[in-house]
Amino acid sequence: MEYRKKHGIYYVSLGGAFPAGAVPVRHPAAPLVILVRRDPLYSRGFWAVDDLGQLTEPEGPAALVPQPAPDDVPRDLQDFVQAHGAAVLNTAFPRGYEFAEAWFAPKPQRLRLTLVGLGDVGGTVLTALKLLGREIEEIRIFDFNEKLGRRYCLELNQVLSLDGAAMPKVSLCREDQLFDCDLFLFTASKGVPPVGQEQGDVRMAQYEANRAMIATYARRARAARFQGLFCQISDPVDLLARAVYLESNRGEAGHYDWQGLLPEQIQGFGLGVMAARARYYAEDMDLDLQAVRAYGPHGAGLVVANRPDDGYDEDLSQRLTTLAKEANLRVRDLGFKPYIAPALSSAAVSLLQLVRGQYHYGAVPLGSAYFGCRSRFTALGLQTQREPLHPDLFARLEQAYRDLTEER
């Protein structure tokens, strides 16, 4: 194998071109980036692997299970990856090398966030992050209702710290500063049906209105050459995350030039509350709460499992899926919009788990769809949680994935 080095990063090619100026070296060292070249419309961009078998897996739910190492790979490379891990970079993205260098550059000790939208969800997320976000230096907020933004700045900057630890500063954000941040949180939404007027899958009623709105911000992220994480919180997060990705990668003529965000720079935050709702009902059934899993979209297509492995029970899992999927209707039956649990479980808690490097629920790129699962960010990039899955459960995940790719 040929290895090269540039700016402290080691590269090996399995199909992708080396970056210009990379010099040959005898042996690999960390951090190692494996270069591949795949169609950006259907493939990932920058992710972590700990076994070379993960390089040849099909895009989709296969990224959620362990993969055997192929027989035809160099032993030295396989041994290195198993011992140290590696990042994979799809060189079909022109900004890929730039992103890789930014990824491995020193990170700030505390993060700066931008939050757009101060409705019910946005205000709840902001309050939770103010109280719990010890990793956050500043939360800059933007809403077209300027008085609402000023109100939140006044009130949340007058909150006492419980233990004396530093709390995030809350400040107003100008439109030209939106992407001067580490994480961009989009909670704004249009088309939420009023209580009593909803029909069918509520999240899909929001899709078309929110898609048109989110396109503007995707283009702004592209223009700013944003290097952070675009956190899509308004529904439907999986479809809108994909829309952000595609829109950010369109040139002025409307064609794809892949000069925008890499797939892993976008994540949808909607599945956390479904996992929380599943656990709520699983507790009444005396099930092992730590074994309960949720996958797929937040709404129709959701997959809940009583456990992922040999103890998987199809009937019980289908029952949990229905209960979790319809839990929001129980709140609407009482005459209220169900936004508190989603804002806390799907957004605030999941975001804090993400910045702490913990496994969390979110919709991440698995080929041509953003699919809800457990993942985390490591020093080498995005890593999905891999565990043995019962064949019947895996079949449900494959169907949910196919439905998502056909739903757009």
TrEMBL record:
It comes from the Bacteria. It comes from Candidatus Avoscillospira stercorigallinarum. InterPro entries: NAD(P)-bd_dom_sf (IPR036291). This is Lactate dehydrogenase.
